Amino acid sequence: MKVSIIQFPGTNCDYDTQYAFEKLGATTELIWHKATELPADTDLLVVAGGFSYGDYLRSGAIARFSPVMDAVKEYADEGGKVLGICNGFQVLTESHLLPGALKRNDNLHFISKHHHLKVASTDNTFLQKMEQDEVVNIPVAHHDGNFYIDPKGLEALYENDQVLLHYCDKNGKENNPNGSVDSIAGITNKNKNVFGLMPHPERAIDAILGSDDGIKMLEGFFNS
Amino acid sequence: MTAIVNISLKAGVLDSQGKAVHHALDALKFEGVEDVRVGKQIILKLTSTDEASAKAEVTEMCESLLANTVIEDYTIELIS
Q1: Mutating which of A58, A64, A94 best tests the B interface, going by the most B Cβ atoms within 10 A?
Q2: What is residue A32's three-state secondary structure?
Q3: Distance CA B15, CA A178 (A)
Q4: For the structural domain made of A2-222, what CATH number should be given?
Q5: What is the pTM of this model?
Q6: Largest alpha-carbon pair distance within chain B?
Q7: Residue B43: pLDDT above 70?
């Protein structure tokens, strides 16, 4: 199992992501954004979190035009599995590999804390190890995590089962930290091979650090 | 030629910054403010001297990079 992790200038979750996947038994490779090809044996491509290009203009807007993004698009178009975490989610929406956009948090604050999430759909390769409506505790750390999509786009997401995660409280009741439409925390593309989420499962892999709920999620990402 | 691009969130997309500024103006007793929208301005110095081609080029810049048309609108003003 090979996980390739994209690094832009300003990416800062690359090594955490590498550590988490290696802990689960994967081999990993960090891919600098100037690369024009991805390792041929890539099973999962991760656009890691951070602040690519200092979040200048809009989060993810400049990274979208990095040389490596042509290869990422091609990989996704051919059905390869792509995971975008936090800034990676923002890069994927800016690249139109995922619908919608991530706006500034409603309360205008950078939010960094553990938050609960509820699994909205397991009918996809990413969350196949999770249970429907399962509640997990995974940290969030973002300024621009306020997911927006117009009503028509939202309807299409639900029709095609593309909404994977909602923000909730520990009892599974809706609890929206950032103003996201319908408390959405993660979505896939139509073909369900590209998944973006704002929370950081790679930071929830050790109980001593607050939660190891991320393990089950990450395992599902690469064991299929 | 100079192009002044103004970018703001679309009508209907909640502008949290605008709302916060509005509240602050209220707190300062500026009572005549109906609504506040916060945007950004990008000023481009262009080599082009032809208005039509400059407009076309800046429009393309806005569509591809300067604005995210999923959530933002933009206007272009050219000054020669």
Answers
A1: A58
A2: strand
A3: 13
A4: 3.40.50.880
A5: 0.94
A6: 47
A7: yes
Cα angle: B39, vertex A143, B71; to 5 degrees: 40
- At B80 the pLDDT is 87
Residue B11 in tokens: 């009508």
Contact A220, A125 (CB under 8 A): yes
Q: Which two tokens stand for residue A161?
A: 């089962």
CA–CA distance, A29 with B65 (Å, rounded to integer): 29
Please compute the mean of the pLDDT values over residues A59-70 and round it to a whole number.
96
Supply A32's token pair. Answer: 């600098």
How many angstroms separate the CA of residue A61 from the nearest CA in chain B?
7
Domains of chain B: 2-79 (3.30.1280.10)
Domain boundaries along the sequence of chain A:
2-222
Contact B71 A93 (CB under 8 A): no
pLDDT (0 to 100) of residue A32: 97
Residues facing residue B5 across a β-bridge? B42, B76
Q: Does A2 touch chain B (CB under 8 A)?
A: no
CA-wise closest residue to A113 among A10, A198, A25, A5: A198
Q: What is the pLDDT of residue A223?
A: 65
Residues 6+ apart with CB under 8 A from B12: none
